Amino acid sequence: MKKLVISLALCATNSLFAQQNWLGNTSPTYEELIAHLQQLDRSHKEVKLYNMGPSDYGQPIYLCVVNGHRDSSETFEKARQSTTILINNAIHPGEPDGINACLIWLDQWIRAGKPLKSHDGGDLPVIAFIPAYNVGGMYNRSSTSRANQNGPEEYGFRGSTKNLDLNRDFTKMDAVNTYTFVKIFQALDPDIFIDNHVSNGADYPYTLTYISSMKERLAPSMQALTYAHCIPTIKDYCQIGNFELFPYVELKGETPEEGIVAFNDLPRYAMGYASLFHSLSFTVETHMLKPFPERVKATLQFMNATIAYAIGNAERIEIARKEAIQWSQAQTYFRFNYQMNEQVKDSIRFKGYKAVYPIHPITGLAQLEYDRKQPYEKYIPYYHFYISQDSIAVPKYYIVGGQETKVIASLKANGVEFQTLDSFETKTVTCQFVKSYKAPTRPYEGHFKLSEIEIASSEQAILLKPGDILIPAQQERAYFIHAVLQAKAEDSYFTWNFFDSYLQQKEYFSAYVFKAQIEDLLSKNPELKKSYEEKKALDIKFAQSEWDQLFYIYQRSPYFEQTFMRLPVYELND
Ligand SMILES: [Zn+2]
């Protein structure tokens, strides 16, 4: 008994000590963070800390779940059935504001007696947070990697152990961390998702800005929920807390006065990924020049406002998500390649600091600065309309070659339903041939990511084999499936180099042998003969190059390999 009293007293002291710690200019190391949460897990049945799987660093990624005590990490039954908020912290460990905010929230909730109901009887949602996601980056601590940031004293590094930016990895899944994240996300099926960050860029008075998913990419019900209801309500809640919420300041030009643009949250980002599954998604960006404790407080206020919104609108959120899932399944076209519409501009009232260009005493050059002694408040242009430049008819089924094990593993991890073929069968399918593409000269996030892709499609009889998979396109994960399998979509597997091996010709011809065959080939194919003669007459370079002429005929002959430039993703419509 005495032992219990002592340990309880210790626990209370630790909790108080802890909260004071999280309120200051320091953020815990990964070990301190996990040790603290393990202690809370031991002391409170409403708080559970789960080891959810590995990171590239070797150390596990954890998930702390509050008010989900009937769950297990296998089922997360309660999270799936009630309203759930998932918060991701330290995907960029140099930006640890969310870590402290979640710890303070947890301490305050415990000290308030662990209430499961609001004053007016609403249920507390399941609150799940990843204490720190980029584990490798958490261990790579310094006080200097964020040159312009005002605290904390020490923090982790943006890159992962493999020097990846994990916030670009959600479709390509190069990091082990991403598999663990996807496992968490798919298990919880969160209604609301928050990814906590700290911004770089212009100086202005707002401590916290938010990014919401690009409205044009959302299903109508989620677009209405996000923009017509959730954001205005959260704004009001923040106002009550004497804290002003403003959209992320993504500059159109050099300064805010030239206007700001809505962020295009492609599926490679955590928020863009979450919105493919119709979660109400936000990225929180506190401002790097504001002191760390102030940033933490703002992050906590946003979290509290979101929780209050979830308590008051559980049914509304559930209905909007259900409608979005049904809507996305029923779409016959998939739209992508969204570009900002510069013709339609709105304006927004903005509090800023005047941009000035003093001559620097050392460099002797005029440099942009923001003069805090000259604040202003005025309307600035706000570009928040996007238009999709491309769309594609959705097939009934996709077929992926069984040799594409990484693709299949990723689809599986993301909860995509498919059937695996167990016998050989010849089927007429629509094949995608890559006509052209561009590859950069420098890698981006471990890839020479392809762009400016041109695709030609044609019907071919293909021998499908055991192990190939058949994916019905009209299913819950429809948005995700199109986003990764449609070659031209911005973050498709094709753009991320999954299918580069199909872009190289394997067999060739010897010109000195092949030229003896062309007369025969042309006489058997009058159409080819005609196009060849026309090209020779019009194209001087072609007319003077024996190799170009031979290749032109070879490429159009039965000798040319059928698989060259043909992607291992087919479409089936019957
Ligand atoms: Zn960040």
Provide a descriptive summary of the structure in words.
- The chain has 574 residues and is α/β, with parallel strands linked by helices.
- The chain folds into 3 domains: 2-329, Aminopeptidase (3-Layer(aba) Sandwich), CATH 3.40.630; 390-505 and 563-572, no CATH class; 511-555, no CATH class.
- Helices cover 34% and strands 23% of the residues.
- It is built from 17 helices and 19 strands.
- An 8-stranded mixed β-sheet has the order 1-2-4-3-5-9-6-7, sandwiched between helices. It has a 4-stranded antiparallel β-sheet with strand order 15-18-14-19, with no helix packed on it.
- Helix 7 (220-240) links the parallel strand 6 and strand 7.
- Helix 7 (220-240) crosses helix 9 (292-312).
- The structure holds zinc ion.
- Residues 92, 95, 197 line the site of zinc ion.
